[in-house]
Give the backbone structure.
Amino acid sequence: MSYVFPPAPQASVAVAGSEDRFPVRRIFCVGRNYAAHAREMGKDPTRDAPFFFTKPADAVVMDGETVAYPPETENLHYEAELVLAIGTGGANIAEGDSLSHIWGYAIGNDLTRRDLQLDAREKGRPWDWGKAFDRSAVIGPVHPVAQVGHIDKGQIKLTVNGETKQDSDVIKLIWSVPEIVSILSHSITLAPGDLIMTGTPEGVGPLVPGDVCVVSIDGLGAVTTTIGERAS
Ligand code: MN
Protein backbone atom coordinates (compact mmCIF):
# COMPACT_ATOMS: atom_id res chain seq x y z
CA MET A 1 0.00 0.00 0.00
CA SER A 2 1.22 3.49 -0.72
CA TYR A 3 -0.38 6.90 -0.38
CA VAL A 4 -1.33 8.92 -3.45
CA PHE A 5 0.74 11.76 -1.99
CA PRO A 6 2.94 11.98 1.11
CA PRO A 7 0.85 12.20 4.32
CA ALA A 8 1.18 15.36 6.41
CA PRO A 9 3.85 15.27 9.10
CA GLN A 10 2.66 14.33 12.60
CA ALA A 11 1.60 17.48 14.49
CA SER A 12 3.48 17.79 17.77
CA VAL A 13 4.39 20.17 20.56
CA ALA A 14 7.52 20.56 22.64
CA VAL A 15 8.16 18.76 25.93
CA ALA A 16 9.75 20.91 28.62
CA GLY A 17 13.33 19.93 29.38
CA SER A 18 13.50 17.29 26.63
CA GLU A 19 14.30 16.87 22.95
CA ASP A 20 11.30 14.54 22.66
CA ARG A 21 8.02 15.83 21.20
CA PHE A 22 4.45 15.26 22.36
CA PRO A 23 2.47 13.98 19.31
CA VAL A 24 -0.87 15.79 19.02
CA ARG A 25 -3.92 13.74 18.10
CA ARG A 26 -6.86 16.13 18.61
CA ILE A 27 -7.49 19.45 20.36
CA PHE A 28 -10.64 19.76 22.48
CA CYS A 29 -11.62 23.11 24.01
CA VAL A 30 -14.05 23.89 26.84
CA GLY A 31 -16.38 26.84 26.32
CA ARG A 32 -17.10 29.35 29.15
CA ASN A 33 -15.31 27.78 32.09
CA TYR A 34 -14.69 30.87 34.24
CA ALA A 35 -17.74 32.73 35.61
CA ALA A 36 -16.41 36.24 34.96
CA HIS A 37 -15.62 35.37 31.32
CA ALA A 38 -19.10 33.87 30.79
CA ARG A 39 -20.53 37.19 32.05
CA GLU A 40 -18.33 39.33 29.78
CA MET A 41 -19.55 37.21 26.83
CA GLY A 42 -23.15 38.05 27.79
CA LYS A 43 -23.97 34.65 29.33
CA ASP A 44 -24.84 33.57 32.87
CA PRO A 45 -22.21 31.32 34.43
CA THR A 46 -23.78 27.92 34.93
CA ARG A 47 -23.05 24.43 36.15
CA ASP A 48 -25.20 23.06 33.33
CA ALA A 49 -23.15 20.49 31.41
CA PRO A 50 -20.03 22.07 29.85
CA PHE A 51 -19.81 22.27 26.06
CA PHE A 52 -16.83 21.62 23.84
CA PHE A 53 -15.47 22.65 20.46
CA THR A 54 -12.36 21.48 18.63
CA LYS A 55 -9.36 22.73 16.68
CA PRO A 56 -7.32 20.78 14.11
CA ALA A 57 -4.18 19.14 15.50
CA ASP A 58 -2.06 20.95 12.91
CA ALA A 59 -3.29 24.36 14.14
CA VAL A 60 -0.64 24.20 16.89
CA VAL A 61 1.82 27.09 17.23
CA MET A 62 4.96 26.83 19.39
CA ASP A 63 6.27 29.27 21.97
CA GLY A 64 8.13 32.17 20.34
CA GLU A 65 6.48 31.94 16.93
CA THR A 66 4.95 34.78 14.91
CA VAL A 67 1.36 34.20 13.78
CA ALA A 68 0.25 36.13 10.72
CA TYR A 69 -2.98 38.07 11.34
CA PRO A 70 -5.59 35.56 10.06
CA PRO A 71 -7.92 36.18 7.10
CA GLU A 72 -11.59 37.17 7.18
CA THR A 73 -11.54 38.82 10.63
CA GLU A 74 -11.30 42.35 11.98
CA ASN A 75 -11.31 41.18 15.62
CA LEU A 76 -8.66 38.56 16.47
CA HIS A 77 -8.73 37.81 20.23
CA TYR A 78 -6.35 36.16 22.71
CA GLU A 79 -7.57 33.66 25.37
CA ALA A 80 -5.12 32.46 28.06
CA GLU A 81 -5.79 28.83 29.00
CA LEU A 82 -4.44 25.89 30.98
CA VAL A 83 -3.95 22.91 28.64
CA LEU A 84 -4.16 19.23 29.64
CA ALA A 85 -2.11 16.71 27.66
CA ILE A 86 -3.62 13.21 27.67
CA GLY A 87 -1.15 10.32 27.87
CA THR A 88 -3.53 7.41 28.51
CA GLY A 89 -6.78 7.15 26.59
CA GLY A 90 -10.12 5.82 27.73
CA ALA A 91 -13.89 6.09 27.67
CA ASN A 92 -16.27 6.69 30.58
CA ILE A 93 -13.38 7.66 32.86
CA ALA A 94 -14.48 8.07 36.48
CA GLU A 95 -13.70 11.47 37.99
CA GLY A 96 -11.50 9.76 40.57
CA ASP A 97 -9.40 8.18 37.80
CA SER A 98 -9.10 11.30 35.60
CA LEU A 99 -5.71 12.48 36.82
CA SER A 100 -4.04 9.17 35.93
CA HIS A 101 -4.87 9.87 32.25
CA ILE A 102 -3.01 13.21 32.19
CA TRP A 103 0.59 13.08 30.94
CA GLY A 104 1.33 16.76 31.47
CA TYR A 105 0.22 20.38 31.49
CA ALA A 106 0.93 23.30 29.16
CA ILE A 107 0.10 26.94 28.61
CA GLY A 108 -2.29 27.71 25.75
CA ASN A 109 -3.61 30.71 23.86
CA ASP A 110 -6.95 29.96 22.15
CA LEU A 111 -6.71 32.46 19.28
CA THR A 112 -10.24 33.40 18.21
CA ARG A 113 -11.78 35.28 15.28
CA ARG A 114 -14.27 36.86 17.67
CA ASP A 115 -16.41 38.53 14.99
CA LEU A 116 -16.90 35.21 13.17
CA GLN A 117 -17.54 33.34 16.44
CA LEU A 118 -20.22 35.78 17.63
CA ASP A 119 -21.86 35.87 14.20
CA ALA A 120 -22.03 32.05 14.24
CA ARG A 121 -23.36 32.08 17.82
CA GLU A 122 -26.09 34.53 16.84
CA LYS A 123 -27.14 32.48 13.82
CA GLY A 124 -26.97 29.11 15.61
CA ARG A 125 -24.15 27.98 13.33
CA PRO A 126 -20.99 25.99 14.25
CA TRP A 127 -18.09 27.89 15.85
CA ASP A 128 -15.43 26.35 13.60
CA TRP A 129 -14.69 29.43 11.50
CA GLY A 130 -14.26 31.51 14.65
CA LYS A 131 -12.12 28.99 16.49
CA ALA A 132 -10.58 26.31 14.26
CA PHE A 133 -8.62 28.31 11.69
CA ASP A 134 -4.96 27.77 10.70
CA ARG A 135 -2.44 28.43 13.50
CA SER A 136 -5.19 29.14 16.04
CA ALA A 137 -3.83 26.99 18.91
CA VAL A 138 -0.77 28.36 20.67
CA ILE A 139 0.53 25.53 22.89
CA GLY A 140 3.67 25.91 25.03
CA PRO A 141 5.96 23.05 26.03
CA VAL A 142 4.17 20.21 27.85
CA HIS A 143 5.45 19.84 31.40
CA PRO A 144 5.27 16.18 32.48
CA VAL A 145 3.21 15.44 35.59
CA ALA A 146 6.28 13.54 36.79
CA GLN A 147 8.01 16.94 37.11
CA VAL A 148 5.32 19.48 37.96
CA GLY A 149 2.59 17.36 39.59
CA HIS A 150 -1.08 18.13 38.98
CA ILE A 151 -2.31 21.68 38.63
CA ASP A 152 -5.54 22.73 40.37
CA LYS A 153 -4.65 26.29 41.30
CA GLY A 154 -2.17 29.06 40.50
CA GLN A 155 -2.10 32.42 38.74
CA ILE A 156 -2.99 32.50 35.03
CA LYS A 157 -1.99 35.77 33.40
CA LEU A 158 -1.83 37.31 29.94
CA THR A 159 -0.10 40.48 28.83
CA VAL A 160 -0.13 42.35 25.52
CA ASN A 161 2.96 44.50 24.93
CA GLY A 162 3.68 44.25 28.67
CA GLU A 163 0.23 45.42 29.78
CA THR A 164 -1.78 42.95 31.89
CA LYS A 165 -5.07 42.00 30.22
CA GLN A 166 -6.05 38.77 32.01
CA ASP A 167 -5.15 37.93 35.61
CA SER A 168 -6.99 35.11 37.34
CA ASP A 169 -6.43 31.78 39.07
CA VAL A 170 -6.90 28.27 37.73
CA ILE A 171 -8.79 27.46 40.95
CA LYS A 172 -11.69 29.47 39.50
CA LEU A 173 -12.43 26.92 36.75
CA ILE A 174 -16.19 26.21 36.85
CA TRP A 175 -15.45 22.63 35.73
CA SER A 176 -12.30 21.28 37.39
CA VAL A 177 -9.56 19.36 35.57
CA PRO A 178 -10.80 15.92 36.79
CA GLU A 179 -14.39 16.81 35.88
CA ILE A 180 -13.44 17.95 32.37
CA VAL A 181 -11.54 14.74 31.60
CA SER A 182 -14.36 12.56 32.96
CA ILE A 183 -17.19 14.44 31.22
CA LEU A 184 -15.38 14.59 27.85
CA SER A 185 -14.59 10.86 28.01
CA HIS A 186 -18.30 10.07 28.31
CA SER A 187 -18.90 11.67 24.87
CA ILE A 188 -15.80 10.57 22.98
CA THR A 189 -13.04 8.03 23.65
CA LEU A 190 -9.98 9.97 24.71
CA ALA A 191 -6.68 8.90 23.11
CA PRO A 192 -3.00 9.49 23.89
CA GLY A 193 -1.98 12.79 22.29
CA ASP A 194 -5.29 14.55 22.84
CA LEU A 195 -4.98 18.10 24.19
CA ILE A 196 -7.73 19.79 26.19
CA MET A 197 -7.83 23.60 26.40
CA THR A 198 -9.74 24.26 29.63
CA GLY A 199 -11.24 27.71 28.98
CA THR A 200 -10.20 31.31 29.51
CA PRO A 201 -10.76 33.78 32.36
CA GLU A 202 -12.19 37.27 31.93
CA GLY A 203 -10.39 40.10 30.12
CA VAL A 204 -10.35 38.76 26.56
CA GLY A 205 -9.59 41.36 23.91
CA PRO A 206 -8.08 42.13 20.52
CA LEU A 207 -4.63 41.56 19.04
CA VAL A 208 -3.27 43.57 16.11
CA PRO A 209 -0.16 43.17 13.94
CA GLY A 210 2.99 43.89 15.94
CA ASP A 211 1.49 42.88 19.30
CA VAL A 212 3.52 40.62 21.58
CA CYS A 213 1.24 38.44 23.72
CA VAL A 214 2.63 36.53 26.73
CA VAL A 215 0.66 33.95 28.72
CA SER A 216 2.00 32.64 32.03
CA ILE A 217 0.72 30.07 34.52
CA ASP A 218 2.31 29.37 37.91
CA GLY A 219 4.66 26.42 37.56
CA LEU A 220 4.56 26.29 33.75
CA GLY A 221 6.60 29.35 32.79
CA ALA A 222 5.47 31.65 29.99
CA VAL A 223 4.62 31.43 26.29
CA THR A 224 5.13 34.30 23.85
CA THR A 225 3.32 34.92 20.57
CA THR A 226 3.93 37.79 18.16
CA ILE A 227 1.19 38.82 15.73
CA GLY A 228 2.47 39.41 12.22
CA GLU A 229 1.04 41.27 9.27
CA ARG A 230 -2.10 39.96 7.64
CA ALA A 231 -1.19 37.15 5.24
CA SER A 232 -1.64 38.33 1.67
MN1 MN B 1 -11.16 29.39 24.83
